[in-house]
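Honest question from a wet-lab person: if I give you the sequences of every part of a complex, can you actually get the arrangement of the whole thing, not just the pieces? Trying it with mine:
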Amino acid sequence: MTAAHCADPDEAVAGIADGSTVLVGGFGMAGMPVQLIDALIRQGARDLTVVSNNAGNGDTGLAALLAERRVRKVICSFPRQSDSWVFDGLYRAGEIELEVVPQGNLAERLRAAGAGIGAFFCPTGAGTPLAEGKETRTIAGRTHVLEMPIHGDVALIGAHRSDRMGNLVYRKTARNFGPVMATAAALTVAQVHDVVEIGRIDPEHVVTPSIYVDRVVAVGSEQ
Amino acid sequence: MSLSKDEMAAVVARDIPRGAYVNLGIGQPTLIADHFEPGSGVVLHTENGMLNMGRAAQGPEIDPDLTNAGKVPVTELPGSSYFHHADSFAMMRGGHLDVCVLGAFQVSAGGDLANWHTGAPDAIPAVGGAMDLAIGAKQVFVMMTLFAKDGSPKLVPECTYPLTGMGCVDRVYTDLATFALGADGVRVLETFGTTVDDISARLDVPLRRA
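Yes, you can. This is the full assembly:
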């Protein structure tokens, strides 16, 4: 089924259940689906596991969701930043669980989930605390660590433009995790700056094909 | 005189081959970008999905959709490309990058790297792309001061901080000397305002002369 076009971000996040694993795109604020996260705050789902590269910046977007105490666990590569005060406070108070994942493993575990890969071996993290308790195997003389896929119940991503079918294009480094997260969730929701008619995106330029996209909402320009 | 951060960056830049694909870690290594010769053809990779990254953006060039790994707005160059995160890390993990330059808390004589976590109980762990770069780039350079602020050496027999990667560091560029790490141990390639004997006296690591 091609993507459903939602009238507003609230319609786009309808039905997200308590306890869901939510993949949230973005690298810092670039590509972060702020309007979808704001809608998720209004929607009310709680006890969420959030998978994202960072653990929120400033007081908006993911940081605002954390501040509302709606997130039980964060799986990310880089929580600590100059402006991650919301997460830092919750973590130091023992009010949020953290799984730190090397960024390449985060991306590849999402990719594996989307591609039907049951697990994979990779040298990243071998011999470090982040590989403790994980199965290892020596391949070509090098220690590899077994990594499991990360499946999302929902992916919330920000893209630049969609057509009516849900084919997506991105802009510059705001692409980041969007294309891999779109493949890894049971329900993928994209916020875009605008939606164009079918045929207006050159098929050679489509980054995320429509098969991965379930709901689209246009949120207007970025600024 | 020991080297300033900028002088260290210039030494690293000099050793990066023309036309290399290079990832510069967050922090001090980003200074290296200012020291490539015009026409060096070095292509910078940024983990958040770009090759041929340009300099920091100024004023009207600032675009929230175009940042480097440190979330600083940057510019694109002719021949730039964008790609998603799994592709970006395949470039690292698949051995396609020629050189990466990382900061470090400690490097061991055997090339182990510790640069992501001090192990302090109240510290919030954050690894980012460091573990992927450490195991993936063809050559891993470290740029750091040779001694911590408390005077303790950062080139050590064994790392006491949690590891980022095992046996992965090829070169260590410091304010006092440059070291090559390999099967034959630690060789001093160059000293700055000091001597191999003086450095030897302050380190617990056996040093070979170049």
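Two things worth pointing out. The domain at 5-209 of chain B is CATH 3.40.1080.10 (Glutaconate Coenzyme A-transferase). Chain B has four helices and 13 strands.
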